[in-house]
Amino acid sequence: MKIRLNDQHIIRLDQEAQQIFFDWRNKLDREKTRLPKEIRGFLPKAYGNALRLAAAIDCLHQFNQGQAPRPLLDAQGMERGIKAAMFYLGQSVDSIRLILGDALIIDPVQAKILEALGDGPLSTTEINNQVFQRNVEADKIRAALQALVDTDQIVESVQPAEDGQGRNKTVYSLVG
To answer: Which residues contact 98 (CB under 8 A, 6 or more apart)?
Structure first.
């Protein structure tokens, strides 16, 4: 098969590559509240760029081996595209934070809480026991939770005790 310079070539994702892309895209979309608001609107572009980069990088690998581009992109090719897109997205986030004067250091307790809440809502007790295995002072966890609530990154809700007589349970979840 001879490829000419101006020939259009359509590359599709195999099932595994497609699942990797959707999982990455959905996870990043859930975590967008951690990004500067100036970047959030560009996430759809990052998703498209990951697909384009995956195809371009895969073509380069094929050409390097003396082969024509493949019609189906595999999981490894999709992961390369995601890695490249995340590199450029990270550069953009750092640039925006630098321009706006935001601190580039993220509180590690807050970061761990946000990561854990990506899997669903958690109570204060679950955050203390499961996320931090009681290795972080409760005051630090409470302060981190309050800071995340104050910056509209997470939502706090109170659930009544299941038996109607015990203590109410405070539950936290990601915004959106």
So the answer is: 104
Mean pLDDT in order along the chain per 10 residues (176 residues): 66 94 90 75 88 93 89 93 90 79 66 84 88 85 88 84 77 84
Using CB atoms within 10 A of its CB, is residue 30 exposed (0-12), middle (13-18) or buried (19+)? middle
In this structure, are strands 169-174 and 154-159 parallel, antiparallel, or unpaired? antiparallel
pTM of the model: 0.56
Under the phi-then-psi rule, with left for phi > 0, alpha for psi from -120 to 50, and beta for the rest, what region is 44?
alpha
Domain extents in the chain: 12-100, 108-174
Say which CATH topology domain 108-174 has.
Arc Repressor Mutant, subunit A (1.10.10)
